[in-house]
Amino acid sequence: MKKLIFILFLISISFWLYQKENITFFQKQSKQNSGYKIKKNEVYYDDIKLKNVDIDTFEIFESCYAKDKNNIFEGHINFKDADLYFDAPSFKAFNCYYTLDKNGAYYRLNKKISQADINTFESLNEVFAKDKNNIYFKWHLIKDVDYSSFKIIEKRFAKDKNQIFYIKELSYEFNKNKFYNKKYLKIKNMADVNTFEIINNLNYCTYTKDKNNIYYIEPNSLAKVLENYDSKILNIIKNIKQCDDYKVNEILKKAGVKKLFKK
Q: CA 254, 256, 258, 262: dihedral to nearest 10 degrees?
């Protein structure tokens, strides 16, 4: 009898330790994954219980999603309940934007990237992705891009050896007169790709430069250009807190600068 009690005690301790380890694991994960946690062998998202979860195969991605062997979840919502049918065993989420399963790669779940090679597909950030053959902007194939030299500069900027890409809704390239989606950001005196860099990145605008010019860039207008800058101008622009080219020009004037931003 004592032996039986001891065995039962060991089993209960083992179960408690197992459960504690799982709770700790999911609590750590939840800090990065929008509130998933486990309580008494049940999975919760922000205190909403997930139904029909296979706890042994439950997995949280470094993003908005989680899955088990049968189901995929975004928050507490089961894909099947939202009429979203992906292959759970092969489902993978790179972030909240790019996902894939054995049938394809997707942007925001509802845009299939038809040309994607799923074996080599990967997300570069929230709007750029690539596989062994192509670079993609959201779900669009970028046709005029040099694959080997393509590089993300910053969240809204990328480049290859020929051009600078700036994200403006569905408009993402400026280079001579080649533009996509009939919306674009154009810099009149085109930026020198090899020396292009961001010098001041604010919430609603960005100041960039190359070896020749400084560029004031905001999403809803054409770029403004300040030509042939010197070190005094560069230092002023680096410390500007304004997203208004008129006000910036006023600041430059007060500093005795004659060269100003212009369209």
A: -30
Structure tokens at 213: 């010019």
CA angle 165, 197, 147 (to 5 degrees): 40
Domain locations in the chain as residue ranges: 18-89
Q: Are strands 59-60 and 65-67 parallel, antiparallel or unpaired?
A: antiparallel
- pTM flag (> 0.85): no
Distance CA 248, CA 250 (A): 5
Cα(143)–Cα(127) distance, integer angstroms? 16
Which residues of 42-121 form beta strands (DSSP E)?
42-45, 48-49, 59-60, 65-67, 72-74, 77-78, 92-93, 98-101, 104-107, 111-113
The 10s digit of each residue's pLDDT in 82-136 is 899 999 999 999 999 999 999 999 999 989 999 999 999 999 999 899 999 999 9
Give the C-alpha separation, 4 to 182, whole Å. 77
What are the tens digits of pLDDT across the range 2-25?
Answer: 555 544 444 454 444 444 444 444
- Write the CB contacts of 244 (distance below 8 Å, at least 6 apart in sequence): none
The SS3 call for residue 109 is coil
Phi-psi region of 17 (alpha: psi -120 to 50; beta: other; left: phi over 0): alpha
CA 96 – CA 103 distance, rounded (Å)? 19
